[in-house]
Amino acid sequence: MLSLDSSLLIVSDLDGSLLDHHDYNWNAARPWLARLKQFRIPVIICSSKTAAEIVPLQEQLGIAGSPFIAENGARIVMAGEATGTGAPAAAYRALCRSLQALRSRFCFTGFHELSDADVADATGLTLAEAHLSRLRDASEVLLWRDDEQRLEDFRIALARHGLALTRGGRFWHVMPEGCDKGHALIWLQQQLEQQEGKPRITMGLGDGPNDIPMLTRVDYAVVIKGAGTKPVVLPRADEEHVYYTTLAGPEGWREGLDYFLLNPAMGARAEDKQ
């Protein structure tokens, strides 16, 4: 099996993965989080959430101070880095102005147009959590109110503004072109390798289409059963390094770690890679 003593790095999505899709609890993941901390195996959050949301979550999860990837890869925060001033960033405001130019052609609502109460109603977050979700640095969350058939036209229009569109677990996300969880992970791995002087074996866990770029780049991928009608299928040939869970949310998160870290068949494969 993959060894808890190995140079392992866990990369995890939040909503619908480590956190329950409906009530955001993570009770089923507690034992594994404690065990990973005991063996000093880093857990890197890789989420569509903002940096302002992730920092207090890291405190709750017992992984405070670790690097993380926010806003689907549009924001990377290294250990000890400051995470903002309590207001939306200039890059985010510029992105929203670009979206405004498309309002005459497409029907959508961005988080910047909503109040904290509106976001809380749409997401199930508390008012305080909803406020943090609106402190964005470089991407926007959209409630798509147009015909689904017009999404491709919307992608083309966004591209003319240097923007891209991706689907998360609940909403659509707009970000600068070239930003995704996979590219962000590669950059973060390079930084960690320079600091530590060695590469790490990576295991990624996620449930949504926006997790695919990350899950295709990790050594071992756990695709957690999602809430959507279309299951996520990875374009990978190494099927033995991919596991599709039968359970959703933190229960699926635990199931994936059980499979790769408690499965004797993983041992020889991990040793071959090392």
Automatic annotation (TrEMBL):
Gene3D superfamilies: HAD superfamily/HAD-like, Putative mannosyl-3-phosphoglycerate phosphatase, domain 2
Enzyme class: hydrolase
A single BP term in Gene Ontology: mannosylglycerate biosynthetic process
GO MF annotations, alphabetized: magnesium ion binding; mannosyl-3-phosphoglycerate phosphatase activity
GO cellular component: cytosol
Pfam families: Hydrolase_3
EC number: 3.1.3.70
TM segment ranges: none
Top-rank lineage group of the source organism: Bacteria
NCBIfam families: HAD-SF-IIB, HAD-SF-IIB-MPGP, PRK03669.1
Organism field: Kosakonia oryzae
Keyword line: Hydrolase, Magnesium, Metal-binding
InterPro entries per the UniProt record, alphabetical: HAD-like_sf, HAD-SF-IIB-MPGP, HAD-SF_hydro_IIB, HAD_sf
Protein name in UniProt: Mannosyl-3-phosphoglycerate phosphatase
